[in-house]
Amino acid sequence: MRLLGTSGHRIRGKTAPGGGAKTAFIGHRPAVAFSARNTRGSKEERPAVTQPQSPVLVIATTDPESRGILERELRVRYGSEYTVVVRANYEAAERLLVDLAKQEQPIAFIIGCYNPVDRDGIDFLGRARAIVPAAKRGIAVTWGDFASAAAVFRATAEGKVELTLVRPEHPRDEEFHATITDALVDWNMAQGVGFEAVRLIAAERDARSHLLRDLFNRNHIPVGFYAAETDAGQSALADLGLTDSELPVLVLRFTSPPTVLVGPTDIEIADAFGLTRTLGTDTTFDVVIIGAGPSGLAAAVYAASEGLSTLIVEQEAVGGQAGTSSLIRNYPGFSRGISGAQLAFRSFQQAWAFGSDFLFMRSAVGLRAEDDLRVVALSDGGSAVGRSVIIATGVDYRLLGVPVLDELVGSGVFYGAAVSEATAMTGRTVFVIGGRQLRRSGRDLSGPIRRSGHHSRAVGEPRGEHVRVPHRATRQHRQRRDPLPLAGDRRSGRRRLPEWDRHPGSRRRKRNTRAGIGSVRADRVPTAHRLGGRRPAA
Fold first, then answer.
1. Rounded distance, CA 341 to CA 59, Å?
2. What domains are defined for the chain?
C-alpha cells in the first residue's frame, strides 16, 4: 500500500456507458417540470424536460380533506428540498408516475389513502410498485378508523404497502413526520444520494472493488465509486498524480488533508479511519464480543451501559447479514419496520456512545483460557484478552458448489448484497437464485421482478431445508404454552431443541437444531467453527 496526500477537491467528468458512479451522482439526469397543484383533477399536467429538479413526493387520493391536509404538511416541511405533487384521482396519478419514470426523475415517496371516503389507495400503491419500484409507498389512514386496520395490515404483508401513516390531525404532527423522514433516509441511502466521504477508484468488475463497496455501504459510510475504465475514473487518477497505479485507490475526503490509500488491505483501511482501538499487551476487557451483528451489538449495548469495558471484534460490517435487509418488520420496537442498515447503524452508535471499543476487519481465529482470563487470537496476529467472551458469529452463506460460478464470485456472481447495490444494476438483467426473502415481501417469483430500476428474474429456489428455532410453531401449534424440552446429543454432549416443521404434501416431521444458533438455513452455516468448533455437516 502507498499513502499519499492530496488536496482532495471534487473530481468531475463524464462517465462512460455502463460505468457510472454507483453511490455518488456525477452530473445530473434529465428532470421534469410540472404544476404541483391539481386538486380538482380538471386538467392533467404534462411533464416537460427542464433543469434538474429535486426528488418528487406524490400524494394521490379522492378524499379532498385528506388531500388538503397531506399537501399542506408535506409542502410546508419538505417543499424546499422535494417537489410535492398532488393528484385528485388515481388514474391521473398513475399517468404521472409513468411520465416521471420515463424522464428518469427520482420519485422518493408515494402516498395513497385508505378510509371510508377513499378505498382505492391500497390498490393504487400496488400498481405504483410496478411503475416505480424504488419509491417508498405509504398508505395514509385516519385516527380512529380501526375497521380499516385489517385491510391495511394485509396489504402490508402482501407488499403493496410499505408504511402506514396516521393522517395528521393538527399542524406539526412530529410522529407523522418521523415516519416520512425515516422512509426518506432509507430511500436516499438506497439511491446513493449524499455526502461522498470516501472516493473509490477501481475496476468496475473487479471482485475487490465490489467487496469494498459492499463493506462501505453496509458500514454506513458514504462512498462515491469511479470506474477506472471511464473518463471520470481516469480524470480522478490524473488529479491525484497517479498513472498506471495499483488499484483500488481510496481517497478519505473527511480527513484534513484528505488521505489517499493505494492498494490498501482491509486492516489498513480500518486503521486509517481511526475507529479501531489499539490493543496494548496489558489491555484486559471485561467483555470481548466476537461479531457485530444484531445480537453482538445488543450484547455490547447492555454490557457497556452497565459500565463494563467492552470490545467488539468484527471481520466485515456491523449488522451482519441483517444489515443487508431492505426492511425488517419483526424486530421489537419498530412497528413500522426498519431497514437492516438503519438498525445496524443505530445499534452501533448506541454501543459506541456507551464506550464500547471496536476492532474492524479482524476475525477471531482461536480461543484459549489463561487462568481466569480468555484470550481471543485475531487474524492479524494480535490477540484480545477478556474476562468473558460472547460468541455472536452468525452464519456464512453456503456456496452453490458450481465451479464456473465460484470463479466469478465478486465479478458478476454475488451471495447477498446491500440495498444500495440495486442502483448499480439499473438496466441490466439480474438472475436471482433463491428468493425466500423476496417471497416474504409479496413479490412474484414466477415472473420478472422489478426493483430499484433493474430487471430481475428468479430462476428456481433451492429445495434445501429451512430449519428454525420455534419461536412460533405452525398454525396448529401456536397456542402451545408448555416449554419445549431439551434433547441430548449422545455423540457430542450438546443439547438440541426439537422443532416441528411442515412441508406441503407431507406429514409433520421432527427436526433438530442446536440451541443458541437461532436461525439456520440450508444455504447458510454457523461460523463458530472458526474458533475451533466442529463445522456442521452440509
1. 27
2. 2-22+194-273 (3.40.30), 31-191 (3.40.50.2300), 284-396 (3.50.50.60), 403-458 (no CATH), 466-520 (no CATH)
Query: Which of 181-185, 223-227, 387-391, 478-482 is least confident?
Result: 478-482
Helix, strand, coil distribution of the chain in percent, nearest 5? 30, 25, 45
Q: Tell me how crowded residue 246 is: count the other CB atoms within 10 A of its CB.
A: 11
Per mean pLDDT, which range of 2-16, 65-79, 208-222, 472-486 is the poorest? 472-486
Q: Is 321 exposed, middle or buried (0-12, 13-18, 19+ CB in 10 A)?
A: buried
Residue 509's φ and ψ, nearest 5 degrees, are -125, 145
What dihedral do alpha carbons 356, 359, 365, 367 form, nearest 10°? -30
Q: Provide the grid cell at 282.
A: 496489558
Q: What are phi and psi of 197, to 5 degrees?
A: -75, -35
DSSP state of 254: T
Sign of the alpha-carbon dihedral angle for 379, 384, 387, 391: negative
pLDDT digits (tens, 9 = 90+) for 365-406: 999 999 999 999 999 899 999 999 999 998 777 778 888 888
- pLDDT tens per residue across span 263-310: 999 889 988 988 777 787 789 999 999 999 999 999 999 999 999 999
pTM (global) more than 0.90:
no
Cβ 110 vs Cβ 184: under 8 Å: no
Q: Count of alpha carbons within 13 Å of 130, Cβ hemisphere only?
A: 11
Question: What average pLDDT does this structure show over 454-473?
Answer: 35
Q: Cα 297–303–309 angle (5° rounding)?
A: 105
Cell of 129: 410498485
Pairing of strands 2-5, 31-33: unpaired
Three-state DSSP class for 235?
helix
